[in-house]
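Handout, page 2. Input:
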Amino acid sequence: TPPPPPPATKWVQYPDLQSGQGLDVNATVPNAANGLTTLADDFQCTVAGPITNIQFWGSFYNDLSPGANTFVVSIWSDAAASTAGFSQPFQRLWTQRYGPGEYTFQNAGTGNEQFYDEFTGLLSPETKVWLYSFDLFPTNPFCQLGKGTIYWVSVASLSPAAAFLQWGWKTSTNHWFDAGVFGKVDPVSGNMLVGWQPLSNPMIATPTPVDFAFRISSGPPSP
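Output:
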Protein backbone atom coordinates (compact mmCIF):
# COMPACT_ATOMS: atom_id res chain seq x y z
CA THR A 1 0.00 0.00 0.00
CA PRO A 2 1.22 3.56 -0.62
CA PRO A 3 2.44 5.51 2.41
CA PRO A 4 -0.07 7.86 4.03
CA PRO A 5 0.00 11.48 2.85
CA PRO A 6 2.07 13.88 4.94
CA PRO A 7 0.19 15.32 7.92
CA ALA A 8 -1.62 18.60 7.45
CA THR A 9 -0.03 21.54 9.24
CA LYS A 10 -2.29 22.95 11.95
CA TRP A 11 0.16 25.62 13.16
CA VAL A 12 3.72 26.64 12.24
CA GLN A 13 6.23 29.25 13.41
CA TYR A 14 9.45 29.29 11.37
CA PRO A 15 12.95 29.72 12.83
CA ASP A 16 14.79 33.05 12.82
CA LEU A 17 18.00 31.93 11.09
CA GLN A 18 19.44 34.96 9.30
CA SER A 19 18.43 38.15 11.14
CA GLY A 20 21.39 37.90 13.51
CA GLN A 21 18.98 38.10 16.45
CA GLY A 22 17.84 34.48 16.54
CA LEU A 23 18.47 32.39 19.64
CA ASP A 24 18.77 28.75 20.60
CA VAL A 25 17.43 28.75 24.17
CA ASN A 26 18.85 25.99 26.36
CA ALA A 27 16.33 23.30 27.34
CA THR A 28 18.68 20.62 28.66
CA VAL A 29 19.59 19.11 32.03
CA PRO A 30 21.92 16.16 32.82
CA ASN A 31 19.33 14.55 35.11
CA ALA A 32 15.76 15.17 36.19
CA ALA A 33 16.35 15.20 39.96
CA ASN A 34 15.93 18.98 40.21
CA GLY A 35 13.27 19.19 37.53
CA LEU A 36 13.37 19.53 33.76
CA THR A 37 14.38 22.85 32.22
CA THR A 38 11.27 23.35 30.10
CA LEU A 39 10.47 25.87 27.37
CA ALA A 40 6.93 26.53 26.14
CA ASP A 41 5.11 28.64 23.58
CA ASP A 42 1.44 29.28 22.91
CA PHE A 43 -0.54 28.44 19.78
CA GLN A 44 -4.17 28.40 18.74
CA CYS A 45 -6.39 25.55 17.62
CA THR A 46 -7.39 26.28 14.02
CA VAL A 47 -9.35 23.08 13.39
CA ALA A 48 -10.62 20.69 16.07
CA GLY A 49 -9.13 17.23 15.79
CA PRO A 50 -6.11 15.10 16.69
CA ILE A 51 -2.51 16.24 16.79
CA THR A 52 -0.36 13.48 15.29
CA ASN A 53 3.08 15.10 14.97
CA ILE A 54 5.04 17.89 16.69
CA GLN A 55 8.28 19.30 15.31
CA PHE A 56 10.86 21.63 16.85
CA TRP A 57 13.76 23.46 15.23
CA GLY A 58 16.83 23.30 17.48
CA SER A 59 20.62 23.27 17.80
CA PHE A 60 23.31 22.11 20.18
CA TYR A 61 25.72 24.23 22.21
CA ASN A 62 29.13 24.56 20.49
CA ASP A 63 27.60 23.46 17.17
CA LEU A 64 27.86 19.82 18.20
CA SER A 65 26.00 17.07 16.34
CA PRO A 66 22.96 15.27 17.81
CA GLY A 67 23.54 12.63 20.47
CA ALA A 68 21.46 10.35 22.66
CA ASN A 69 19.19 12.99 24.19
CA THR A 70 15.77 12.15 25.61
CA PHE A 71 12.93 14.64 25.13
CA VAL A 72 9.79 15.31 27.13
CA VAL A 73 7.10 16.92 24.97
CA SER A 74 3.89 18.23 26.54
CA ILE A 75 0.73 20.17 25.72
CA TRP A 76 -0.85 22.48 28.29
CA SER A 77 -3.96 24.56 28.74
CA ASP A 78 -3.64 28.35 28.91
CA ALA A 79 -3.61 30.65 31.92
CA ALA A 80 -4.60 34.11 30.71
CA ALA A 81 -2.33 37.10 31.28
CA SER A 82 -4.75 38.60 33.82
CA THR A 83 -3.74 35.87 36.31
CA ALA A 84 -0.02 36.60 36.65
CA GLY A 85 0.69 39.56 34.38
CA PHE A 86 1.66 37.33 31.45
CA SER A 87 -0.01 34.29 29.93
CA GLN A 88 1.57 30.92 30.64
CA PRO A 89 0.91 27.17 30.61
CA PHE A 90 -1.63 26.14 33.22
CA GLN A 91 -2.53 22.44 33.36
CA ARG A 92 -0.55 19.71 31.62
CA LEU A 93 -3.07 17.98 29.33
CA TRP A 94 -0.76 15.55 27.54
CA THR A 95 2.87 14.48 27.85
CA GLN A 96 5.19 11.93 26.28
CA ARG A 97 8.80 10.99 26.95
CA TYR A 98 10.77 10.16 23.78
CA GLY A 99 14.03 8.24 24.09
CA PRO A 100 16.63 7.81 21.34
CA GLY A 101 15.06 5.93 18.43
CA GLU A 102 11.55 7.14 19.28
CA TYR A 103 11.91 10.39 17.35
CA THR A 104 13.63 11.49 14.14
CA PHE A 105 15.78 14.48 13.23
CA GLN A 106 17.25 15.93 10.07
CA ASN A 107 19.73 18.59 9.08
CA ALA A 108 17.75 21.75 8.28
CA GLY A 109 20.51 24.05 7.03
CA THR A 110 22.57 26.74 8.71
CA GLY A 111 21.88 29.97 10.53
CA ASN A 112 23.46 33.00 12.20
CA GLU A 113 22.33 32.73 15.81
CA GLN A 114 23.37 32.65 19.46
CA PHE A 115 22.97 29.75 21.89
CA TYR A 116 21.42 31.33 25.00
CA ASP A 117 21.44 30.08 28.57
CA GLU A 118 18.40 31.74 30.12
CA PHE A 119 19.63 31.11 33.69
CA THR A 120 23.17 32.55 33.31
CA GLY A 121 22.59 34.96 30.43
CA LEU A 122 25.57 33.55 28.48
CA LEU A 123 25.52 33.76 24.67
CA SER A 124 27.70 31.83 22.20
CA PRO A 125 27.66 31.66 18.38
CA GLU A 126 25.55 28.93 16.79
CA THR A 127 25.18 27.97 13.12
CA LYS A 128 23.75 24.46 12.75
CA VAL A 129 20.02 23.81 12.38
CA TRP A 130 18.26 20.53 13.15
CA LEU A 131 14.57 19.73 12.78
CA TYR A 132 13.29 17.24 15.38
CA SER A 133 10.07 15.31 14.72
CA PHE A 134 7.91 13.55 17.32
CA ASP A 135 4.99 11.36 16.28
CA LEU A 136 2.32 10.98 18.93
CA PHE A 137 2.00 7.34 19.98
CA PRO A 138 -1.36 5.72 19.10
CA THR A 139 -1.48 4.60 22.74
CA ASN A 140 -1.21 8.21 23.94
CA PRO A 141 -3.24 10.45 21.60
CA PHE A 142 -4.21 14.09 21.98
CA CYS A 143 -7.19 15.81 20.38
CA GLN A 144 -7.77 19.55 20.15
CA LEU A 145 -11.38 20.12 21.08
CA GLY A 146 -12.28 23.55 19.77
CA LYS A 147 -11.32 26.12 17.17
CA GLY A 148 -9.87 29.21 18.81
CA THR A 149 -8.73 27.43 21.98
CA ILE A 150 -5.25 28.48 23.11
CA TYR A 151 -2.80 25.72 24.01
CA TRP A 152 0.89 25.67 24.94
CA VAL A 153 3.45 23.20 23.62
CA SER A 154 6.56 22.57 25.70
CA VAL A 155 9.81 20.65 25.31
CA ALA A 156 12.54 19.60 27.72
CA SER A 157 15.76 17.75 26.90
CA LEU A 158 17.71 15.27 29.00
CA SER A 159 21.29 14.41 28.09
CA PRO A 160 23.49 11.61 29.44
CA ALA A 161 25.80 13.29 31.93
CA ALA A 162 28.86 11.46 30.54
CA ALA A 163 28.33 12.94 27.06
CA PHE A 164 26.45 16.10 27.99
CA LEU A 165 24.92 17.80 24.96
CA GLN A 166 22.89 20.96 25.52
CA TRP A 167 19.98 21.15 23.07
CA GLY A 168 18.37 24.53 22.51
CA TRP A 169 15.00 25.42 20.99
CA LYS A 170 15.24 27.98 18.21
CA THR A 171 13.34 31.24 18.36
CA SER A 172 11.01 32.25 15.55
CA THR A 173 10.44 35.09 13.12
CA ASN A 174 6.72 34.70 13.90
CA HIS A 175 5.31 36.46 16.94
CA TRP A 176 1.86 35.39 18.07
CA PHE A 177 0.11 36.51 21.25
CA ASP A 178 2.42 36.32 24.31
CA ALA A 179 6.10 35.49 24.81
CA GLY A 180 7.55 32.02 25.12
CA VAL A 181 8.34 31.04 28.71
CA PHE A 182 10.79 28.89 30.68
CA GLY A 183 10.57 27.08 34.01
CA LYS A 184 11.45 23.86 35.80
CA VAL A 185 8.87 21.07 35.76
CA ASP A 186 8.59 17.91 37.83
CA PRO A 187 8.73 15.20 35.12
CA VAL A 188 6.26 12.91 36.88
CA SER A 189 3.58 15.20 38.28
CA GLY A 190 3.90 18.11 35.87
CA ASN A 191 4.02 20.47 38.86
CA MET A 192 6.17 23.58 38.62
CA LEU A 193 9.37 23.47 40.68
CA VAL A 194 10.48 26.89 39.40
CA GLY A 195 7.60 29.00 38.08
CA TRP A 196 7.22 30.09 34.46
CA GLN A 197 9.00 33.28 33.40
CA PRO A 198 8.57 35.10 30.06
CA LEU A 199 11.56 35.29 27.73
CA SER A 200 12.93 38.47 26.16
CA ASN A 201 15.71 38.66 23.59
CA PRO A 202 18.95 39.69 25.40
CA MET A 203 20.50 40.99 22.15
CA ILE A 204 17.86 43.70 21.69
CA ALA A 205 17.96 46.77 23.96
CA THR A 206 14.20 47.33 23.88
CA PRO A 207 12.44 44.47 25.71
CA THR A 208 11.37 42.17 22.88
CA PRO A 209 9.50 38.92 23.59
CA VAL A 210 10.67 35.76 21.86
CA ASP A 211 8.54 33.03 20.34
CA PHE A 212 9.76 29.56 19.41
CA ALA A 213 9.97 27.68 16.10
CA PHE A 214 7.69 24.66 15.86
CA ARG A 215 5.10 22.90 13.73
CA ILE A 216 1.88 21.20 14.92
CA SER A 217 0.39 18.71 12.46
CA SER A 218 -2.59 16.41 12.07
CA GLY A 219 -3.07 13.45 9.78
CA PRO A 220 -3.30 9.68 9.69
CA PRO A 221 -1.18 8.03 12.39
CA SER A 222 2.24 6.74 11.39
CA PRO A 223 2.71 2.94 11.01
